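Support case: user asked for a sample of complex input and structure output to validate their parser. Sending the pair below.
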Amino acid sequence: MTTATTTTGDRPAPADGEPVLEVRDLSVTFTTEGGTVSAVDGVDLTLGRGEIVGVVGESGCGKSVTAMSLAGLLPRSAEVTGSVELLGRQLRGAPPAQLRAVRGNEIAYIFQEPMSSLNPVLTVGRQVSEVLQVHERMSRARARERAVELLRLVGIPSPERRVRQYPHELSGGMRQRVMIAMAVACDPTVLVADEPTTALDVTVQAGILDVLRGLRDRLGTSILVITHDLGVIADVADRVVVMYAGRVVERAGVEELFVHPRHHYAAGLLSASPTPGRYAAADDRLQEIPGLVPTLAEQPDACTFADRCPAATDRCRSAAPPLAELDPGSGHEVACWHPRGSTPTTDHPAGEEDA
Amino acid sequence: MSTDTATDAGAADPGAPVLELEDLVMHFGPVRAVDGVSLSIAPGRVTALVGESGSGKSTVGRCVVRLLSPTSGTVRLGGTDVTGLGRRAMRPHRREVSIVFQDPAGSLDPRMLVGDVVAEPLRLQGRGGGRAERERRVAEQLERVGLDRSVAQRYPHELSGGQRQRVSLARALVSEPRLLVADEPTSALDVSVQASVLNLLADLQRDIGFACLFITHDLSAVEYLADDIAVLYLGQVVETGTREEVFARPRHPYTQALLAAAPVADPVRQRERTRVLLGDDLPSAIDPPSGCRFHTRCPLAVDRCATEEPVLRTVGGGGSVACHLVDDDGSGPDVRDATPGATPDATTDPDHDDRPGSPA
């Protein structure tokens, strides 16, 4: 912990942390043999210092593509527009050498499957120290010492012994901890965790989420958690961004979102998951969201959820609702013409201004 | 089909358990994947088999449908011992049990039309009459799982994941089995699709009344769907009970830890919960720990746990548990009260740096 600075006991209030990462109007289009696919459309995202923001959505909603585009990890077939600013520096369109310096150093990633991200023929100690030798220009011996410290930081027991082991000798949870150790080796400003616990058992997941929380609390790392699992969001996130078909449809503080989801998709997701104490009686069915997430060649000027939405009207099919606060100052934004909890006849106030 | 059922070998006693496992053992070379599992499912009951990956729960399911031949022990379907039956002798019993797998894409033949996929069990069992009759039953089956009958003329790759899982269910249920083995049927699906498959499974089970061995790691789905629960740890059952009992009063420290670890989709409740952190490593099934297999991770373990293997015994209040620390009346300690590492809320506890998983 060379630069452990922020160690606030309480969870930092979302608004307090100065923004470290600001994404504005990010769009990603892939050109494939089958034509173009619009994966991300006009995404805005802010991550404050020491904040954990959860991005949630189902497969195909663009959450992983958004995450990958932050540090230029997408293939050449992806056309990225918009702005990605890290501490005021523009990363979108930055030269490869500059992005390479940013990756690992300032923005670090961990992915779902730790086994495929680790090199099977190198010891984990070697892999962790390599990061330090490359980015921090540490000597081999110093990097080795630091690797042991890092493994201890992420909760690996007897790290002195573990550094000499190969990935296949570790359990899935231990491998993911090694990935986290590599990711935080250079004390990154932003950690992007893309489905960090999806491949793991719940008992192991709890430990990994604890490590992430610990990093934020003790190192002040800002963390973007990409997941489909609302339980993970409920556990670690301060704020939540709900994505659907490439767009952000709702943004709110975590407690607010779970209690008062305003977008019909967010509400549908919440009531689709079984919750403790619920049993499949004939009159208690899980809410289904009919239909499928569309794959879009281009983003229409309409609400992309309209076809599956219980509240959709003609307006939803003819104009895309903007993401805007329902109650000014609440920090709870929704992109919907007929948000839940409003009287059915009243349209979204933001929409009224547009009209 | 009523005549079919009347001639069923195993359906003679309608009250007999649909499935009985007695001391089931399945070893793969040195790997003791399943090591003495006994389990019984009454007609029409849904029994969930839960545990971490590596606990042997899928192996149990595969032994039940005889995709694997158990090393030892007994598998009885509807009262008939099918453990030692050869392929041919097993055939009449095949229709009593079906299986649905986790990955619907991998369990449907990509070169077969959906209609042929669903009709195959009937064809193999020499049932369903002529072609027209089979087609009628396939159409009926597809509609029962919420698909249009025209889907019969399509290929699996033309369908979504949720639709494919419905096709798997249609195929599994077309032979009107008395037992359905559902091996992580929703784990590969998105949340909203999971909901529709869980609803469908609940509806079908209620309407048709088949018994179900529901294999899963998803505890919220277990609570939603199961009547009874069996908790598996390193190839052995450590606790059984009804859904109500196990969720309200888990007795085994492992069950308690498992329930405490599963996150609740409610930020306020989730952050107030007691956290129990087990060590990450599920011990190797090649050389399982002595005594109680859970003692290496159990926050409550005492000396006796390392030397003496606890037997699964019935305890007061219903259910059974294999733990030295649980009394015969069913009372015992709770890891959520006793774990030194358990903290009510990681972010507000000033001592949280001392938890396992954090450096002191």
